[in-house]
Amino acid sequence: MNDKKQKLKQLSQKLKSYGAKHFCVQGALHIKNNLPCQDSAQSCLEENFCLAVIADGHGSAQYFRSDRGSRIAVEAFENCVKEALTNSKYYYHDSTHPKDNTAINLIDALSSSRISIKKRNHAIQWFCQSILANWLIAVRQDMQNEPFTKEEIRKIPEKYRTLHEKDHSEYTSAYGSTLIAALLVADFCLLIQIGDGVCIVFDDAEPDASSKIKPVHKYAHGNLVSFEPIPVDDKCFLNTTTSLCDAKAREEFRSCYLKKLPVAVFVSSDGIEDCFHERADLHKFFHRILFDFSDSHEAQAQAELQAFLPRLSEKGSGDDMSLSMLYDVSKFKELTADVRDKQLPEAVSN
Amino acid sequence: MGIYDQTIMQSVARRSMTVFFLVDTSGSMDGAKIGTLNQAVEDTLPELKNISSSNADAQIKVAVLKFDTNAEWITPVPAEIESFQWTPLNAGGLTAFGEACFKLEQKLHKEAFMNDAAGCFAPVFILLSDGAPTDSYQTQLDKLKNNPWFKKGVRVAIAIGDDTICDTLEDFTGNRETVLTVYSPEMLRKIIRFVSVTASQVASKSSNVGQQSAPDQTTTKQQDFIDALQQSTIMEPADDDSELGDIEW
Questions:
Q1: What ipTM was estimated for this complex?
Q2: Pairing state between β A49-56 and A39-45
Q3: Is B3 in contact with A243 (Cβ distance < 8 A)?
Q4: Distance (Å, rounded) from C-alpha A24 to C-alpha A45?
Q5: Are residues B211 and A271, on separate chains, in Cβ contact within 8 Å?
Q6: What total number of domains does chain A contain?
Q7: What local confidence, expressed as pLDDT, does residue B237 receive?
Q8: Fewest 10 Å CB contacts: which of A193, B24, B118, B236?
């Protein structure tokens, strides 16, 4: 075994202490209004990576297949990760640097310490575009397999209807959805997002200044800190969001690269975010979840959260709720050992 | 009841929707105008309370900014409608509309009145005025019009009497349809009630729960309000004209 493979194997050992869980429940108002659940969620642990992903399909009438769109988005992310990390023939092609090694594996592109930030960002951009392409291909395939019904065509806005009549694969907006995903590989964490929703990371410290990450909403919880490292997009405001179905979707992905594996990472739809007026309470909720999963039997913790989310939706936003999480239980226990039998520390704004 | 119900549920709240009343309290409003306005808003509060309590989607809050020679917030922060009490306003002085725009814009930020940001509905802005601004207002109004909360909100103006400069009010709301002119105390009472209730219903309904739209969305809450206005008969003359009261201003 060469040194590189040996190193990767050693690094992959770190992933073995992680747990991965995902939840997706129909919102109270969706039940009341007889709307399907338009969120989707997935998480998985593999030998050399773990991922957590959620997608939130748009609800207006013109996005009439957004429940499928969110499911396809989650699958697209999973497919692209597997393709990039398990298929040795997958290459990220760096066309901007023809004199360099022009074709490198994505994992090398992201994990190499010698790579420049610019080149890494380029690799991430490439990866996001592959997710978008994968989503569009699957959406068009779904439209071919099951063409829009007359009732669905009536929901297409006037200005797009003529276009759809000419080319039946063009109205992909019917499947409009957001996407937030976290990927842990070897010694790094990649977070990507298009649209609204939230990604919260828990670790023993926030990213150092050299990372150039400027997290918003930072809170301290005893020896842990939680923060939101993905840059905010001002276009996601009130009921407007960017989307995989946007014409300029490829430019609307935001991302964040963390040079170390965090204690935990949560991705969730705005249905959960909108239940809490105080941002600190949202962070406290996720902190509480970590405590529960590290204290209780995993199946019991899972059942408890699964049962709580519909009640949260009913009292709070009324919206669908999706949540996906990756967490290192042993590290979390180690960092919270001094407060395990005491009350949870209050979230304190930094 | 599980662990989350005990520890988390207490911090869970409905989304909130704030109704901003921007009230001209200049000298020309003195007398019947301000008296009717005070009574009309007070009479409308129970209906807003009903909307808030019977609507699982949104908690209604109220914020009041009065402007005469200066602009001043009557509510230091948006007040929950259930506990809100209208303080009767007095009239006197000039019409510092520009300062009112400035003070409103200052509060339309996450760090100010919109700190429920994660769970907010687009707000409602109800401007009540009977005259023309006496200060240089255009720069402040333009700045307000660029504020994202203002742009997303339902904006409506009630012009009290013939002397009102409707162009300014139209500039504020962005539509001629949402400038409603009233000529009598009875009409003012009816319009205040109609506008407050209808705009609150439109703005607080759950149409955006799970219904976020991509940026090319074609409908807005402002358009929804205009539709509601056009479907109503509120601005049509009543069969019995006396119902509207005599023209008193």
A1: 0.76
A2: antiparallel
A3: no
A4: 18
A5: no
A6: 1
A7: 66
A8: B236
